[in-house]
Amino acid sequence: MDGAAPTVTFTRSRTPHDVVVDGTVLELLAKRAPLTIIRGPRGYGKTTTLSTWFGAGGPGHLTVALRLTRASNDAAHFWSELDSALVDVDLLPANGAQGTDHRERAMTSLGEVTEPLTVVIDDYHHAGGPDGAADIDDDLLELVRQNDQLFLVVSTRTTRVIETTGSLSVDVAMISPKELRLDGPQVSALAARIGVALNDREAGRLATGFGGWPAAIRDVLVRSRGDGGRLNLALADEYIAAMVRDLRHEQVRRFLLHTAVPERFDAELAQLVAPGDSTLTILRNVRSAGLLREEIDEGQRTYSYAPFVRQALLRLLSESRPDELRAVHQRLMGRSLQERNHLEVLVHAIHAGAWSTAEQVMEDEWHFLVTQEPAMLMAAAQAIPSEVVAQHARFRVARDEVDGALLGGEPDPQHIWPTGDIRGITAELSPRRTRSGVDPTSFALIQWGVAAVIAGDESSALYAFGRARTLAQETDGSATAVRLATAGLACTHAIYGDVGIAASWLDDETLDGVGDESHDDYAQVGYWVRLAQAIVALDRLDPDMDDRVAALPERTRRDEVWGMGVLVAARHAAITGGPREVARWAANVRAARHYLPHGRMAEMALRTTEVEVLLAGGRLEEARHAAKDLPPNAVTMSTHAQLALLAGEYRHAVSRARNGLSEQYLSHRSVIECQLVLAAAHFALGERAAARAAFAEAIRSAYASGQRRPLLILRHRVFAALAGEDLRVLELWPEAFRPPAEESQEEVGGGLVELLTPRELEILQALHQHAGAVPIAQELRLSVNTVKSHLRSIYQKLNVTNRAGALQRADEIDRPGARSGAAAAD
């Protein structure tokens, strides 16, 4: 036998002139494993890889190479081809006899080779067809196991027994689609060879879009070269479409087209959209071929196509089989209904043309869709035919109005609260219940506004109510619609603390007399108007706030709007009531929380109100307990800051207030509260410049918003000291909450700030957390002796002898935030 390596060529070489093969693939081939398998779908460069390997010298010893065709589906034909290839390299004599057993000849010859021999079989997926493939695999594996001079290299599109069983008995070098894929730098190199101008970003996009599919990428580059030499991604579909059309089996073609509809799928979903006895087998083969990306998501195995591949499959399905596309969406819609995934139901219903289902989803889940998924809702509505949109008010709002609220950017989903089922809240506003009627479009906008308020999205709420009001006025809509929208604007501004603007909307002529029970729209609009009036009066500390709060009727339905009424009454009791009234309302708020769904904004606001009421009643420990598991968010941050302030934890108060002010969705009321906490904490620490700066910001915010109630966070003495001689600022403090003149004079001259130095104040604050000089010294980075010296001075100035006495005396002298004004008013 001649040991020189012969020149090997394939009978139907498809190897392009310009190719890029990863060096690691050639290294795997060079290892000369007993069995080497190159597996990948059509166009993954299997033949190119083999030709490149041979061009670089190949295995370096005698090689038998053949490429199979569909004729090799017949096992006898396969053995005949292998027999002929062995004859070509003089391993077998020419066969001229009739009835020769080609399998026996080939098996005997290969089993008896005594010098290294590599057998390369390209397009091995044709070998044996459905009936004879396993037998051929077993025969070749047996040869490799028995003869250590025989090396077998096969390239195939599918997973076969030779791969699964072979790895159990012989060493296998596996070149899978993962190794054959092209990455960004390889795409750049290939583009340079072909003559297409490509930057790194475009190369990476092309590699990712096709999942590294070599032939598909090369096809786009070659076509782009003929299209002017610049990358044309519009050509990406053509290769995939040709591949699908060339598939022999309709079941495989249908599987690819149908499973491309969902963005990702699992085995169960594949059975749903492409039902059939062989679906799971096809899934396994397509995955093994490298056409699918596989991920483990929460213990579930899911699959997806590369972006360009999925895009091409969807376009082909849409253009060539529109009825099948609608049928797939119909099946997916049914599954989404079972899973209560309302957004997916809507999307699939639109693509399936199931307009009645789409309309029902819009009717039932409008509050969720418009607050949680506004951009997706708008995109879905754009896919609805114009003639269908014209018949449905919510379709029109989703298509024409939602984008207006998104001009400032889509709300951060992490800051949007769940709305739940608010149909009960808006049922009283429905066209059927209002006396003069509300047109469906205005009603949809008003529902959107109510949902946005409950979701914590102030800007969308204002946009929705504003558009509802404008639309009703422009189209000569009902006066009720105008009043509802106006009341919605007033309530939104009031709830989010912009009480000056809320008051101006309440003065709008469209709401004249609406708060009176005799008014036609009292049942529908009156409560909203009275709620806004009560919030405005309370936040401005108006002289008539007692009457406004008392005039707010209690709703029979225990929902978020009812919860707002409880909140208003409790806050009123916190600043005007005595100890018994405060205790009663703290209990009322605690009970009210249990009527509302957990984890929504209304429930969170009630929890902060409970803490506020307890603090107003001097029940610091109970307030701490109520706030123990209160998560930090836009609703609670100012409460956490106030709690730290009243506990004498001034540095913590400063930190929490600053964190609150960095929160984008903080209400105007909470902004002022955080600014005043900063002012009070810095003042208590003797940091006068920082205190005045924070106080000035709070005053500017108070003027802008009309807020006055947050000023009571400060003791009047601290307020007066920070206001100085500015009469305009001093007048902001409500007359009813000013202490008597003689008490005010006493306050101006007293306080810890006047008794202790800034360093002593800092050590006194640390004394709340630490019982001795050593930990205080470690926290403040001072020597122990220095801390002891300051502690002796503090005890002497406070006329006490120990830590407990110092903390008690400090609390008596200068407790910031105590509602002394309320006590004086009593």
From TrEMBL:
Residues 749-814 form the HTH luxR-type domain. One of its GO terms (molecular function) is DNA binding. This is HTH luxR-type domain-containing protein. One of its GO terms (biological process) is regulation of DNA-templated transcription. CDD domains: LuxR_C_like. Gene3D superfamilies: Winged helix-like DNA-binding domain superfamily/Winged helix DNA-binding domain. It comes from the Bacteria.
